[in-house]
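question for whoever is on the cluster today: can someone run the full assembly for these? two chains, 589 residues total. i dont have access anymore since they changed the login thing
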Amino acid sequence: MAGPVSPHSELGRQRILAAWWFLAPMLVVLAAAAGWPLLKTIYFSFTDATLNNLSGAQWVGILNYYEWLDYGDGTGEAFGLLADEQWWAAVYNTVRFTLISVTLETLFGLVIALVLNAEFKGRGLVRAAVLVPWAIPTIVSAKMWAWMMHDQFGILNDMFLRLGLISAPIAWTASPDTAMVAVLIVDVWKTTPFMALLILAGLQLVPGDIYEAAKIDGVHPVKVFFKITLPLIRPAILVAVIFRALDAMRVFDLIYVLTPNNDRTRTMSVFAQENLFQFDKFAYGSAASTLLFVVIALMVILTIKLGRMDLEGNG
Amino acid sequence: MKTVKQILFYLLVVVIIVQAVFPFYYAIVTSFKSGTSLFQVNYWPTQFRFDNYVSVLTSGSFMRNVLNSLIVATTVVLISLFLAVTAAYALSRIPFRGRGLLLMTILSVSMFPQIAVLAGLFEMIRAAGLYNTLFALIFSYMIFTLPFTVWVLTTFMRDLPVEIEEAAIVDGASPWVIITRVFLPLLWPALVTTGLLAFIAAWNEFLFALTFVSNNDTRTVPVAIALLSGATEFEVPWGNIMAASVIVTVPLVVLVLIFQRKIVSGLTAGSVKG
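^ ran it for u. tokens below:
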């Protein structure tokens, strides 16, 4: 956008000055609430800080990340985050959770978006219903599903037993084999609506006459979908996938409440929080937070580069 | 053939509706049960008793927690909208060097993992003596509400025609007057949408609320529900948890359904338009 006033005129210079004054409060708050704490976290990851001794933290270098303890007899042992099996398990859990949940959410979201894009009686009702999971707080959804997945009194076991899908009740959230499945079910249920709405917005930008033309030419609907619709809504899907993936990488609430202390579902965020505030390994937890930040920052930079986002607004 | 297709389509529609609504429905059904019937699986409502609601609202500090959540979410919305309107005006209507970089930075902050600032914020909040206060939450929630409101309002204001501003500039109006007199009246729909989305985000936040507050009376609703416990460690008060869940969710669902069109447009403006 060029703006109604040339930036080189006297008035233009005044407006630019005003712009910075208008931006200042927002920038100060963001710097104080996000920038400074982030730098502090990174700093703590290079110290020996503990919960009760934050101000007296001493610089220890990369000890929290990696340390090789040489026993002097040719053997030794590696310590630190990068040598911590539990950390790598958390990385694996996070990646697995992100890949599976985002894939399922995209597929289901696409189906729901296509349904919502069709003309039929009761479309408003479907849209309203689909918004319900989105509106429910994550903690509440976790509790609602925890009750439905209860090993003794849960309705999910009852349903599956009646349908003959399982022969004995399952301890969905407690058993190591199903804990991740339980988390995935709740996450997919809760966030598919978001996916569906973003994809729907993309679908609604596809001009209707394309479909008309395809219909007249007698192109099979399945072919229309794969050859016309899908390529046209690919940008919308891509944006939705990236947003969801970034969100999934930092998942915390759901896992903390639904499957606490479970090795199979502990993600990077949960690992960091536990070390920071439960195990009194503040510096170690800071190191884990920092690594997660680096991973997500790389993803964001990649996204912005790939997406060539139009940030200047020069259409 | 056509009818078969239609039946299949409506079957799909029914499946979508049922899966979306069932967990909430089941929570409501459970919340009205009491005593031993709580532990019988029923697909339809069998009891209609308010025991759980009475117990949640009278014992403990749940009412206080609801009030805390309301205070925090409302304050966060007001502050971030105020800061965002002026910032969005500068970012969308005044061309200056570094605008693109600034917008990109703000967008990146909205994708920040909250855990990355947790340790630093914790130290800051303790040093400032804000630990266990609602101020700690109001301050920290700016991280996710501010970038989002700035981003959405900027995209919204960018699309308004140049002409509306021109007359005011010719008349010699200052930027502040332009914002309050020219843009604010046009911005109401966008403010309602972003405000509502920011409210929901603040209302639902868990990690900061769990970390910066340890006092029962200062907790917000999500933490209170997560930590709701029974008389013993092994006795989970499912009836109470469901009643509390219904209490905090019903207003939200009603709000979302009333404003559904606005919310859908706000959500998509926040991402697709980027």
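summary bc i know u wont read the tokens: The first helix of chain A runs from residue 10 to 44. Strands of chain A lie at 67-70, 76-79.
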